[in-house]
Amino acid sequence: MGKGHKDKVAVITGAANGIGQAFAKRLAEDGVHIAVADLADGRDTVKLVEAAGRNALAVVCDVSKEDSVAAMTKQVQAKFGHVDIVVNCAGIFPQADFATMTFADWRKVLSINLDGTFLVTAAFMPGMRARKWGRVVNMASSTFGSVTTGFAHYVASKGGIIGFTRGLAGDVAADGVTVNAIAPGLTRSPGTLARKPRPGFATMDDEFAAVATLQAIKRVEVADDLVGALSFLTSDDAAFMTGQTLNVDGGRVRS
Ligand SMILES: NC(=O)c1ccc[n+]([C@@H]2O[C@H](COP(=O)([O-])OP(=O)(O)OC[C@H]3O[C@@H](n4cnc5c(N)ncnc54)[C@H](O)[C@@H]3O)[C@@H](O)[C@H]2O)c1
């Protein structure tokens, strides 16, 4: 049980799969009830949360659309009454060479990764401020501190998320709300397994193996490597930490 977690309520976007799903399972084990907000069916995550003895709700939601976020917010409020923790994990990372990247490609990544983080945070912030306790955790990426190719839009979105995390932290601190981010390294997930490898790699397994050699801890990162950081950042123990980005990447990025 995490310190201060018992019977809190979390909304986790992108929790139907991958890192978000691992986050949902861990927070449920810590004592938190979970709402999954995802474009994809969150049924499997609901089962994991319920198996941990917590209440769960899955809402189909496109975090990049204001009306969809508003509808999701209503459903979550109707089920749980309030929300204490927002985890903005929904994100896309299509590999695209800059020479062929269109403005539509750029807007899509920025709208889901960055606008989505704004919209979902803004939806639940008034309630957290009114109750004088809240936790927001956003997803950055080790790509922001690394040499990459084919991810100009994605890295820009993650830089925006780090900026948002820092900027918002000051605005809401007086009301007991902290805002932090986690920056994973390349992590095995349904999303990364499905994406096109970067140029120079025949398969994603080759890319995973190569990235692992750049880390101090030379094995491929998995979603469960990230859940401890989330548990800490959303607990009472992290009450004096805000505006920070934690690198959880096997020791690849130093900052
Ligand atoms: N896996 C990695 O290597 C890695 C590294 C650094 C950062 N991250 C970040 O972690 C987060 C999760 O990554 P993952 O690897 O688990 O991805 P994933 O593709 O496995 O899962 C992402 C989830 O987000 C959902 N989603 C996508 N667009 C959405 C939208 N518009 N509205 C609502 N839900 C949407 C998908 O349906 C999916 O369930 C992302 O923000 C990603 O940028 C991942």
Describe, in plain words, how this protein is organized in 3D:
The strands form 2 sheets. The protein has a 7-stranded parallel beta sheet with strand order 3-2-1-4-5-6-9, with helices on both faces. Strands 7-8 form a two-stranded parallel sheet. The chain has 8 helices and 9 strands. It has one domain (9-248): Rossmann fold, CATH 3.40.50.720. The longest helix has 29 residues, at 103-131. By secondary structure, the protein is α/β, with parallel strands linked by helices. Helix 2 links the parallel strand 2 and strand 3 (56-60). Helix 1 (18-30) packs parallel to helix 2 (43-51) and helix 3 (66-80) packs parallel to helix 4 (103-131). It has helices at residues 18-30, 43-51, 66-80, 103-131, 152-172, 190-194, 204-214, 227-233; strands at 9-13, 33-38, 56-60, 85-88, 134-139, 177-184, 187-188, 221-222, 245-248. The mean pLDDT is 97. Bound molecules: nicotinamide-adenine-dinucleotide (NAD). Nicotinamide-adenine-dinucleotide (NAD) binds next to helix 1, helix 4 and helix 6.
